[in-house]
Amino acid sequence: MITNHSNRVLGVLIALLSLLYLAAAYRIPTFPIPRPIDSDAFPKMLGFVMLALSVWLFFERPHVDASDPQRTFGEQLRRWLPVVVTAGAIALYAGTLQWLGFVPGSFLLVAGLTWFYGYRRHVVNGIVALAVPLVLYLVMTRLMTIHLPRGLLPF
Amino acid sequence: MEAFESLMYGFGVALQPANIMYVFLGVLAGTIIGMLPGLGPISALALMIPITYAMNPASGLILMAGVYYGAIFGGSTSSILLNAPGVAGTVATSFDGFPLAKQGKAGKALALAAWASFVGGTISVIGLMLVAPALASVAVSFGPAEYFALMLLGLTAVVSLSERSLVKGLIAAVFGIMVSIVGIDRQTGTQRYTFDSLHLLQGIDFLVVALGVFALAEVFVMLLAGRDAKTHEKQSLGSLRLSKDEVKEIAAPVGRSSVQGFFIGVLPGAGATIASFLAYITEKRIARDGNTFGKGNIKGVAAPEAANNAACGGSFVPLLTLGVPGSGSTAVLLGALLVMGVTPGPMMLEQRPDVFWGVIASMYLGNIFLLILNLPLIPYIARILEVPRPMLLALIIMFCMIGVYGIKFTAFDLYMLLGFGLVGLLMRLNGFPLAPMILALILGDLMEENLRRALQISGGDWMTFIEKPISASLIVIAIASLIAPPVIRYIRRLRQPGVKVHG
């Protein structure tokens, strides 16, 4: 992943983000009563330090990992697919948790991802994906009185 | 004798039935999570925090401490059986542990690790008991300037020891501080970086970040590694017994490594990993059979194991007495304590002796539990390594989600978790160390608070940090800790003849 020019790219990106951060820091309102150091001072310091560090990073030679194989675009895509799908599944879970409920939502998440990652014993998968969230749900809602969304479940 | 009486009081707390159960659950959970390759003590602690919400602080910290040293203890199991250390602190254990396992002596290696860990852990608890109150009495005189300097030192030490690239460590630390100050400024009530979102008014919960950049990012890394990753092969463990000669052989290395490990653990930045490597190198150098290290020498397993567990105990010294964590793991512990309404520091010894001495006493108990768990039961516990990897990854993701959802019960936090998971993945792929970030996240707003208080007292005079001797020396050490390693490297390169020096 680390290539010869990756520090340059990262340096520029971090510099841009620090500038945005600084811009926001200058918009922090001042406190009516004067004090030696107001709410905006520390963020401004951080912004400038980060900007300086990004310049430093830009000029630093990266430690390129020679063992890291070069991959074609297709290979990269295949390699990243599980991460993209997992991220999508998490976002979907977050979006539907309230409506679907903790147990059904978690069942779909665990069973679906386990299957997607290549596990093919569907009965075992189904039992685990149902039992673990159900036990957690009962322990948390009944014993620890922590609220978890019920959703489609009748109890 | 005062320490003895206090310890007895601590046992009074630790031996309450509920707390005995928490110690046991803590070390069991820690052993299991620590054993899973990839999931280290920070992930273990972060995953357990939601459970402590409803507990009283003493019980909560007893549980969390158990998870912490349990994870270090458990990490050795996967180092020995799989050559895939569950925890960075047990990497050195695999150098000789795995060769022993290949020779059919996995049981012996596990037993060695268990006994050495037990001795290391116990010696460090004794050290903690003796050193902590003394340090706390010094720290009582610390003002905001000293605290600021101390936190700065903690951060720079972690940055300088973490990875090869100093600038990446510093960027990680500054990023952590930036995240920590999001929300309402506690001193003025001004909103900072909330983007008018109600969800951000209270700031970003550190658990969201910790679970994201550690546990979830770890899952992503494992997914990227794909199917090339090692799978567990069933093998016989062999006998768990140690002979008298073997015990004699490891006694001195274990003793030395325990004491050395404890003191390394006390230092900010240097934790279990450095302690275990140093112990391994030291023993290899002074052993007569040093050339057999790396090929299955029993001292090569015992020394790092004693050291990493001792360092784990040692790292509690700055946490409990100064309220300043010296590592990523203790930073998460501090975060958990703050959530429970306890501020560790010199006053804790007087205000919450139940927490302070209860935790110390519980560690004696925890070490005994760990020995029991890791000796007769280890063949059964090791079967957790046979859980199919796809299922394990999916379950870890679900545990992260529950942990985060349980904080404020909003889906917003789950999206943030995902965001920080991706940030953690990018940081890891680009060689940014994570420990400075998580430490900075915990220390960030405390640092700002102390900086502002110190300047308030001095009337805005920045010289206050240099005029006070303790804060001045801490700042000098902090700067030196950053400058020294590259300077030493540069001088070494200069001394090597024929090597061209690049900046």
Overview of the molecule:
The complex is a heterodimer of chains A (155) and B (503). With 155 residues, chain A is mainly α. Chain A contains 5 helices and no strands. Chain A has helices at residues 6-25, 41-59, 73-100, 102-116, 122-143. In chain A, helix 3 (73-100) runs antiparallel to helix 4 and helix 4 (102-116) runs antiparallel to helix 5. Chain B is built from 22 helices and 2 strands. Chain B has helices at 2-14, 17-35, 41-52, 57-82, 91-102, 106-139, 144-162, 166-180, 206-225, 244-266, 272-286, 298-314, 316-322, 328-339, 348-351, 353-374, 378-381, 389-408, 411-429, 435-458, 464-467, 469-495, and strands at residues 183-184, 191-192. In chain B, a hairpin with a 6-residue loop joins strand 1 and strand 2. In chain B, helix 3 crosses helix 9. The termini of chain B are far apart.
What does the main sheet of chain A amount to? Answer: none
Fraction of residues in H or I helices of chain A: 55-70%
Strand content of chain B: under 5%
**Beta-strand content bin of chain A:** under 5%
Provide a count of the helices of chain B. Answer: 22
The tally of beta strands of chain B, per DSSP, is 2
Q: How many angstroms separate the termini of chain B?
A: 56 Å
Largest sheet of chain B: 2 strands, antiparallel
